[in-house]
Amino acid sequence: MELPEQPARPSFIDPRRPRPEDFLESLALTRTFPCLAEPGKIIVVGRPSRPLDEVLPYLATLPNVIAYNPEQQALTLRRQPGLVTFGSQRVSITQVNDAAEGLEFLAALAEAINATWEHRHELVPAVAPKQVPRPLDVWALLPQSNCRACGEATCMAFAFGLIHARRRPDECPPLRTEPAYADRRLALRAVF
Fold this sequence. Notes:
Elements: E1 27-34, E2 42-48, H1 56-59, E3 65-69, E4 74-78, E5 83-86, E6 91-96, H2 99-118, H3 135-141, H4 155-163, H5 173-177, H6 182-191
Antiparallel strand pairs: 1-2, 2-6, 3-4, 4-5, 5-6
């Protein structure tokens, strides 16, 4: 009995090599500069191989979005640690160890953008703006006792830690344990 001829298997496809259906070919490193939020770290700036305008509304549906302005074509995502900010022609990543790590992050972001674009038919693009909470708004939801139980010198420092994803609401002992703060705790958990 003769077996049917098997089709030739495709040769290995390099995952970093652009495919015709990809949105981006690359995110090229264009600049680094010191990160003021975290001494010893850098901010990495990259330029996409094409404007990101079409993909930003889909990226804005991701769960770690903290700010989105569709009019300005600006999107900020929280990463642990730091932030990633997208514009039409620019991407910046804060709190990066060095340029080599920055290149890895840019390559990973290009892959994530391409994956989001590939699945855009499954997403509802964001059209409404989303804003990052202001430090005073976050502080207003904290106990404002400056008890230092969280390890920060003040509740305002803890608020900045929440905004920059260095802290979580449950790291504030009074907020976590005292029933009087239950509503505030729920409000902060919804944002962070």
